[in-house]
From TrEMBL:
<feature type="region of interest" description="Disordered">
    <location>
        <begin position="699"/>
        <end position="726"/>
    </location>
</feature>
<protein>
    <submittedName>
        <fullName>Penicillin-binding protein 2x</fullName>
    </submittedName>
</protein>
<keyword id="KW-0472">Membrane</keyword>
<dbReference type="Pfam" id="PF03793">
    <property type="entry name" value="PASTA"/>
</dbReference>
<dbReference type="InterPro" id="IPR050515">
    <property type="entry name" value="Beta-lactam/transpept"/>
</dbReference>
<dbReference type="InterPro" id="IPR001460">
    <property type="entry name" value="PCN-bd_Tpept"/>
</dbReference>
<dbReference type="GO" id="GO:0008658">
    <property type="term" value="F:penicillin binding"/>
</dbReference>
<comment type="similarity">
    <text>Belongs to the transpeptidase family.</text>
</comment>
<feature type="compositionally biased region" description="Acidic residues">
    <location>
        <begin position="710"/>
        <end position="726"/>
    </location>
</feature>
<dbReference type="GO" id="GO:0071555">
    <property type="term" value="P:cell wall organization"/>
</dbReference>
<dbReference type="GO" id="GO:0005886">
    <property type="term" value="C:plasma membrane"/>
</dbReference>
<dbReference type="InterPro" id="IPR005543">
    <property type="entry name" value="PASTA_dom"/>
</dbReference>
<dbReference type="Pfam" id="PF00905">
    <property type="entry name" value="Transpeptidase"/>
</dbReference>
<dbReference type="InterPro" id="IPR012338">
    <property type="entry name" value="Beta-lactam/transpept-like"/>
</dbReference>
<dbReference type="InterPro" id="IPR036138">
    <property type="entry name" value="PBP_dimer_sf"/>
</dbReference>
<feature type="domain" description="PASTA">
    <location>
        <begin position="582"/>
        <end position="642"/>
    </location>
</feature>
<dbReference type="Pfam" id="PF03717">
    <property type="entry name" value="PBP_dimer"/>
</dbReference>
């Protein structure tokens, strides 16, 4: 016995000595095991980076919320008088359904899982619970119902540039770790930059979880995600959202797209689309997760005439007062028609752009030549990505395989572009020839150190046209609104001069074969800038398939968005009407005794419209008189001898009509006031007798309520009743 117990003692002594020397038992480090048992702590959660506007107004940020958990395992309860699990599942489901967005039946199903679980959660419905709702749930005193503090991604502005900003959700991985993850838009694109790194606080405790007196707390600070500052201006974005919502509710279009930019820098100040959604709840988020401004292409319609005219001016092929035969244009076996299928007779190119004549553009292409025109389109960036700091940008296609496609491209049909390409291109017109690359990220800042990681600067993408061309193009575009024959008068804004071009484009059928046709089936748009003399805003608005009233036209919903946003934005930017430069004027000479061909060339070069009363030859009388100051697009009447051929009076003011009647001495009978709606004798008719010529006028209000018969369907449409076929 002595030997047995002596050997056992020596073995035990050897074991103690071995453990003390090595610190190991069966391959386990005893010190680590002790630390893991007595060392504890908790995670210091990092905030996801904020998304802010250009003025540091919050667009997206993390905020404190609560997560709902239900303990369902009965073993969690040690004292039946104080249950710690859900006892009455039916009653619990009924009460919780009043406070979380989940049906009572589904809550009950969650509380009765097929697997043996200790606790269950309620997905998105059980996350992001506010403090107010938390208190109401706690007041129910439901056994087994727990609420843990959590973080929620919060979007304080609701539906606000939602397809640009996107949204982020909290997700839990297989190991039970949860984090907020970007799922769409900037939240998804910049998820890595926005995601922070969690920290940790550790300390040693005793068996009762109390901090040991000799223990030191070790803190590893959390590193919050980077903050992203956008070029978006919250105020201008709100102007846009409010106007789009108002128009969307009234006209219920298939879709809408809008973008507002600073043409001097390329900064995007506002961007939105309809349908839209609330990123907090995802309410309204349908199948379209694309940012249509960047990722979808459209046929731009007559807004594309902006670039056709600019190309013609810059290549010295624009002669505003030269004339062409409007109405239709033959391309082999195909016919391109103006929206007034019979045209307006022989009119000037300036009047053609004011009336949005397709055939004016086709004739300009003949003058320029396709190679010249195509080179300008490439310089304007069409058919290629702008390089905006957003992914999945579409490039569009300039179709030119067949002759017809080349001609239809001049007025924006057949070829495709993105709205952001139109904005980039028009910055060259607004910014004296310098085309600015669009961008939405202003800077990215590390909030932990204050270091600026990304600091964006304006980038000149190219100079497709000269400064002189840009100025002339703006004047031409302004004449579509303020000129006698301008058909974009709805875009006139009180106190500010606007330049721009309306557009109406056919939309492909759902099956991709052919185009839809009809008043409520087009894509209506406007590409414009203001103030026209020195543009501070460049804007594109499109409204697809609005439900128009019997007396309404496509420009109605578009202008309601444009006018509201631009007027409010210019005032917000402190660009007061008094700050706008005066409209340039031209002082005319005394032309009496000179020849019409010489005078007409001079007037056309100065942007004025000569109207001859009689035959070519010596001028005997003029109006206005010499030394009068006129704005671009004004009419100058030149009286000569010989037979008078009647011009088109369409959209002439009563004043101009009275001047013509006085100089011509023709028997013109004037009915009504305002602007000419119709005339009884067609344009181009030689007047050989004293038969009365009846001219009917209507005020702008009357024209709005009862549009002329030929314009009932479309205002600036590029199409006839029968669309051209490829």
């Amino acid at each position: 016995m002595f030997i047995f117990f002596g050997g056992l003692f020596l073995l035990l002594y050897w074991r103690f000595a071995s453990i003390q020397a090595t610190g190991m038992v069966k391959g386990h480090e005893l010190e680590e095991e002790a630390l893991s048992r007595y060392e504890t702590g908790y995670v210091l959660s990092a905030d996801r980076g904020k998304i802010l506007d250009r003025n540091a107004n919050v667009i997206a940020e993390d905020t404190l919320s609560y997560r709902l958990v239900a303990v369902i395992k009965e073993s969690a309860t040690e004292n039946k008088k104080n249950p710690r699990h859900v006892v009455d599942k039916a009653e619990t489901a009924k009460l919780l359904a009043q406070y979380i967005p989940m049906d009572e039946e589904k809550i009950y199903e969650r509380l009765n899982p097929s697997k043996d679980l200790y606790q269950v959660e309620f997905g998105l419905a059980g996350r992001g619970i506010s403090h107010e709702v938390k208190k109401k749930i706690e007041e129910l005193k439901l056994p087994g119902i727990l609420l843990y503090s959590d973080k929620k991604r919060y979007y304080p502005n609701g539906a606000f540039a939602s397809h640009l900003i996107g949204f982020a959700l909290r997700e839990t991985d297989d190991d039970g770790n949860s984090s907020v993850v970007g799922k769409m838009g900037l939240e998804y694109i910049y998820d890595k930059q926005l995601t922070g790194t969690d920290g940790k606080l550790t300390y040693q405790r005793d068996a009762r979880n109390y901090l040991l007196p000799s223990s030191d707390k070790v803190i590893q600070e959390a590193q919050d995600g980077n903050d992203i500052y956008l070029t978006i201006d919250k105020t201008i974005q709100n102007f846009l959202e409010e106007a789009m919502t108002r128009v969307n509710d009234e006209y219920k279009p298939q879709s809408m797209v809008a973008v507002v930019a600073n043409p001097k820098t390329g900064e995007i100040l506002a961007m939105s689309q309809r349908p839209t959604f609330n990123p907090d709840t995802r309410t309204g988020l349908d199948g379209n997760w694309l940012n249509d401004v960047v990722e979808n292409t459209i046929e731009p319609g007559s807004t594309f005439k902006t670039f056709t005219v600019a190309a013609a001016i810059d290549s010295n092929n624009w002669h505003p007062n030269a004339t062409y035969q409007s109405g239709q244009y033959k391309v082999y076996n195909d016919t391109i028609r103006d929206h007034n299928r019979y045209g307006w007779g022989r009119i000037s190119y300036l009047e053609g752009i004011q009336r949005s004549s397709n055939t004016a553009m086709t004739n300009l292409l003949d003058i320029m030549g396709w190679e010249t025109y195509e080179s300008y389109l490439k310089e304007f960036g069409f058919g290629q990505k702008t390089g905006i700091d957003l992914p999945n940008e579409a490039s569009g296609i300039i179709n030119s395989r067949y002759p017809l496609e080349k001609y239809t491209t001049t007025f924006g049909q057949g070829s495709t572009v993105t709205p952001i390409q139109l904005i980039q291109g028009v910055t060259a017109v607004a910014n004296d020839g310098k085309m600015m690359q669009p961008y939405v990220i202003d800077k990215i800042v590390n909030p932990n150190t204050g270091e600026v990681l990304v600091d964006s600067e304006p980038t000149i993408k190219g100079e497709p046209i000269s400064a002189e061309t840009a100025q002339k193009t703006r004047e031409v575009l302004a004449s579509t609104i303020y000129g006698e024959a301008g058909n974009a008068k709805r875009f006139e804004i009180e106190g500010y001069k606007v330049a721009g071009k309306t557009g109406t484009a056919q939309m492909p059928k759902a099956n991709g074969i052919g185009y839809d046709w009809g008043k409520n089936e087009f894509l209506y748009s406007f590409l414009g800038m203001a103030p026209a003399e020195d543009p501070q805003l460049a804007v594109f608005i499109s409204v697809a398939k609005p439900k128009l009233g019997a007396t309404e036209i496509g420009s109605d919903p578009v202008s309601q968005v444009f006018n509201s946003v631009v007027l409010n934005s210019l005032k917000y930017m402190n660009i007061n009407p008094s700050d706008v430069a005066e409209v340039e004027t031209t002082k005319i000479d005394d032309y009496v005794g000179e020849q019409t061909d010489t005078v007409m060339t001079q007037l056309e070069a100065e942007g004025l419209i000569p109207v001859i009363i009689g035959q070519d030859g010596e001028i005997t009388e003029q109006f206005p008189a010499a030394d009068s100051s006129l704005t671009s697009g004004s009419i100058v009447f030149l009286k000569t001898d010989g037979e008078i051929t009647l011009p088109s009076f369409n959209n002439w003011s009563l004043r101009n009509l009275l001047v013509y009647k006085s100089l011509s001495k023709l028997p013109i009978e004037i009915v009504g006031e305002g602007y000419v709606e119709s005339q009884s004798v067609s344009q181009g008719t030689p007047i050989t007798d004293d038969s009365p010529i009846v001219v009917k006028l209507k005020t702008p209000e009357e024209m709005h309520l009862t549009p002329p018969a030929e314009d009932m369907e479309l205002e600036d449409e590029e199409f006839s009743e029968e669309p051209p076929q490829d």
